[in-house]
Write a structure and sequence with these properties.
Layout (H helix, E strand, L loop, with lengths): L8 H18 L17 E3 L2 E3 L5 E4 L2 H4 L8 H13 L10 H18 L3 E6 L2 H15 L5 E5 L8 H4 L19 E3 L13 H13 L10 E2 L4 E2 L1 E6 L15 H11 L3 E5 L23 E4 L11 E6 H4 L17 H16 L2 H22 L3 E7 L2 E6 L9 H13 L2 E3 L2 E6 L2 E2 L5 E4 L7 H20 L1
Parallel strand pairs: 3-16, 5-6, 5-9, 9-10, 10-11
Antiparallel strand pairs: 1-2, 2-3, 4-12, 7-8, 11-12, 13-14, 14-18, 15-16, 17-18
């Protein structure tokens, strides 16, 4: 446990003020810390909670953007990290060490078992970097094609290459283009689908709209005489992360994959936020019955204890003949601390039925959100898959986005003066969605029913207080 010694209010306020003053003078504002004003300082963590300088507990419902799926200060994973420091804390990435090989083998064998494709694993230090590596693999395998499909609302990172396939222009606006920007297609958004369509009909409609691009050469992406598409791959998140944890119709990806296979376009699946049982399966794409050509992973691979990411690709895309030594490299890729943690995460999740556990907890939490929706007309939509849940905050009509109300809720939650069973506490929320009006809920996969009950009570308090202004 890393919970700090409690300070009194005056002492904590003095230290916090000094820290914020130094941060304002010496730290870059280029990261996301200043999305909240003033930035929040935490000094400890355990399980589902973060603690401020006074020792006030904050129930965390975003768990570092789903990087800490297995709880803060997880004793088993912390022990592995400490043990690896005593065994082999560091080694240059041009040399091998046992856990790199074991982790790659474990992932590759699992992929072959699930999807029927042999393949290989390549590691890097973060999700954006692994996306960059995937772009190299795709471009190389497609003989240099640089055009990609991606989705509106999709997020794949903020490096120059990754931002080109991330739909938000604000990530590119000040830096120009590094290569070609993706062609962004609408992602099926069931809550905001056209009136008169069932969810399944909407999924079929979205597939047909994409397939229409290949009808003639004048639709702009297909040369029927050469039998060749101009685009190399389609980058997808099975559930949109930053886009608001949107769960697509179950028939959508099967239809999309048929179109991609017909025209020789690769499917690259981004599991950076939704992997490692966030949705009840190791990979969220497993829910949708399609086989990826490339799969990218990061975040919860090490439970946030080490910056390690990676990708798996089919053998014919990543074999040594096509992707020889030196094709890509990072000094800290496949470091032994990270690979030891990743291997332990896979061992740990294989020992119990994580799918059943996560789906049961997700159903409990979703039912509670649905009850809360009945109490507050401003909750326009709740949905989820496993413990990737969403609550869309709207005007009183239950549909028009209400970003201002959600912003108030976030600020109140971080204020740390909510009350649960007589104890002062706070609530950590994440904001997502096309209109920045969606609470994206990614609690610890070990969250208890009692903690979910607390979360629902605190969400009720937040909404009630925020509506009062």
């Amino acid at each position: 446990m890393s919970k700090p010694i409690k300070m009194n209010k005056a002492e904590a306020a003095k230290i916090e003020a000094a820290l914020l003053a130094d941060e304002a003078q010496y730290c870059s504002f280029g990261d996301t810390v200043h999305y909240v004003d003033p930035p929040k300082i935490f000094a400890g963590c355990e399980g589902s909670y973060m603690y401020d300088l006074q020792g006030t507990p904050y129930l965390d419902l975003q768990m570092w953007y789903s990087a800490v799926n297995f709880g803060y200060a997880n004793p088993r994973l912390d022990k592995v990290l400490k043990s690896q420091i005593d065994i082999l804390p560091q080694v240059a990435s041009q040399y091998l060490h046992p856990t790199k090989i074991e982790l790659a083998r474990t992932i590759a064998q699992d992929m072959q078992k699930k999807f029927g494709h042999s393949g290989r694993v390549h590691f890097n230090v973060g999700g954006s970097q692994a996306i960059e590596d995937s772009l190299k693999i795709v471009r190389n395998a497609s003989k240099g094609k640089s055009l990609m499909f991606a989705f509106e609302g999709g997020y794949h990172g903020r490096t120059l290459g990754a931002s080109a396939i991330t739909s938000s222009y604000r990530y590119r606006r000040r830096y120009g283009h590094f290569g070609d920007r993706a062609l962004f297609m609408p992602f099926p958004y069931p809550f905001r689908r056209p009136k008169g369509m069932t969810v399944e009909e909407y999924g079929e409609f979205c597939v047909k709209e994409f397939a229409r691009l290949f009808e003639t050469e004048y639709n702009g992406v297909w040369d029927p005489k050469a039998g060749e598409a101009e685009y190399a791959a389609f980058y997808i998140e099975p559930l949109q992360g930053t886009g608001g944890y949107v769960v697509p119709p179950r028939n959508f990806f099967q239809g999309l994959k048929k179109v991609l296979d017909k025209y020789g376009i690769l499917l690259v699946v981004d599991e950076i936020q939704m992997g490692f049982y966030r949705t009840g399966k190791l990979w969220s794409i497993e829910h949708f019955g399609v086989k990826p050509d490339v799969l990218v992973f990061a975040k919860a691979l090490t439970n946030g204890l080490n910056p390690l990411a990676g990708l798996w690709a089919r053998e014919e895309l990543i074999c040594p003949k096509l992707f020889p030594p030196g094709s890509t490299h990072s000094t800290f890729a496949s470091n032994p601390l990270g690979t030891a943690l990743g291997l332990e995460v896979l061992r740990m999740t294989a020992e119990v039925d994580f799918e059943t556990m996560v789906m049961k907890k997700g159903a409990y939490f979703l039912a509670g959100l649905q009850d809360l929706q009945k109490k507050h007309v401003e909750i326009g939509d709740v949905d989820g898959l496993g413990l990737a849940l969403r609550a869309e905050i709207c005007e009183a009509d239950g549909f028009t986005p209400n970003k201002a109300l959600l912003d108030k809720m976030v600020d109140i939650g971080l204020g740390g003066d909510l009350n649960y069973k007589g104890q002062k506490c706070g609530l950590v929320l994440d904001v997502g969605g096309y209109y920045k009006n969606v609470i994206t809920l990614a609690p610890s996969l070990y969250i208890s029913e009692g903690e979910m009950d607390q979360a629902l009570e605190l969400l009720d308090q937040l909404l009630t207080r925020a509506k009062k202004g």
